[in-house]
């Protein structure tokens, strides 16, 4: 009987030590990693990073029966700063060529706002949502400053989805056509995007 009590006490002690060590290790590991942890790129299926270039035409249509840009916030009446404060929502066609009826490859969806009091400077916040080829369903997110009367405007790519996860890079915009009467514009976008 003494042997069985001793045997039970030894087993209980070993079990207690094991549980204590497990709890201590779990606590230490939790403190080291908190709510985040490092991951290997390969575990996410990320291979070698590559650079892709696109040339697209952004078709901004303000008038007619099917505008793709609509004002959602008017500028304050008290301002005489060329529309400062105005905000437009867009769902602009992205085409392969400069003609409005050129092949549609995606949509530029987002908004732009007149963000400068001294010049026509826009804050652009938009996604290029691709609808063609291997990039169908993928997006590139762009946010930046667009001084529309500059010959070339550069804006950063801040992310993406689908084949453009972890995207970074920049776009260069050049006005191809601007209709002073309607406000419609065609802008050539050269997109330089690093992605996996």
Notes on the protein architecture:
It comes from Thalictrum thalictroides. One of its GO terms (cellular component) is apoplast. Residues 27-32 have low confidence and may be disordered. The chain is of the alpha+beta class and 196 residues long. The longest helix is centred in the N-terminal third of the chain and has 32 residues, at 2-33. It has two domains: 1-38; 44-195, Beta Barrel (AOC barrel-like), CATH 2.40.480. Helices cover 16% and strands 44% of the residues. It has one helix at 2-33, and strands at 50-60, 69-73, 87-95, 104-114, 121-130, 139-147, 153-161, 168-178, 185-195. An eight-stranded antiparallel barrel has the order 1-3-4-5-6-7-8-9. It contains one helix and nine strands, in the order αβββββββββ.
Shape: elongated
Given as residue ranges, the uncertain stretches (5+ residues, pLDDT < 50) are 27-32
Task: Tell me the radius of gyration.
Answer: 28 Å
CATH class of the largest domain: Mainly Beta
> What is the average per-residue confidence, as pLDDT, rounded to a whole number?
87
Query: Major β-sheet, in short?
Result: 8 strands, antiparallel, barrel
CATH topology grouping of the largest domain: AOC barrel-like
Which strand order spans the largest sheet, edge to edge or round the barrel? 1-3-4-5-6-7-8-9
Protein name: Dirigent protein
Pfam families: Dirigent
Keywords: Apoplast, Membrane, Secreted, Transmembrane, Transmembrane helix
Transmembrane segments: 6-29
List the helices and strands and how they pair.
Blueprint: H1 2-33, E1 50-60, E2 69-73, E3 87-95, E4 104-114, E5 121-130, E6 139-147, E7 153-161, E8 168-178, E9 185-195
Antiparallel strand pairs: 1-3, 1-9, 2-3, 3-4, 4-5, 5-6, 6-7, 7-8, 8-9
Organism: Thalictrum thalictroides
Main location: secreted
GO cellular component, one term: apoplast
């Amino acid at each position: 009987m003494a042997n069985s009590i001793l045997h039970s006490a030894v087993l209980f002690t070993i079990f207690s030590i094991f549980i204590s060590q497990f709890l201590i290790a779990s606590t230490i590991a939790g403190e080291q990693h908190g709510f985040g942890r490092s991951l290997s790129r390969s575990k996410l299926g990320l291979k070698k990073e590559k650079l892709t270039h696109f040339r697209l035409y952004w078709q901004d249509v303000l008038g007619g029966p099917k505008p793709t840009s609509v004002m959602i916030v008017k500028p304050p009446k008290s301002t005489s700063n060329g529309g400062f404060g105005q905000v437009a929502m867009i769902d602009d066609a992205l085409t392969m060529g400069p003609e409005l009826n050129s092949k549609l490859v995606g949509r530029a969806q987002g908004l732009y706002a007149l963000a400068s009091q001294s010049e026509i400077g826009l804050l652009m916040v938009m996604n290029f949502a691709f609808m063609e080829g291997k990039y169908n369903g993928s997006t590139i997110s762009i946010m930046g400053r667009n001084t529309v009367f500059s010959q070339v405007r550069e804006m950063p790519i801040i992310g993406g989805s689908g084949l453009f996860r972890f995207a970074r890079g920049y776009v260069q915009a050049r006005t191809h056509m601007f209709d002073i009467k309607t406000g419609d514009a065609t802008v050539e976008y050269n997109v330089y995007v690093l992605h996996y």
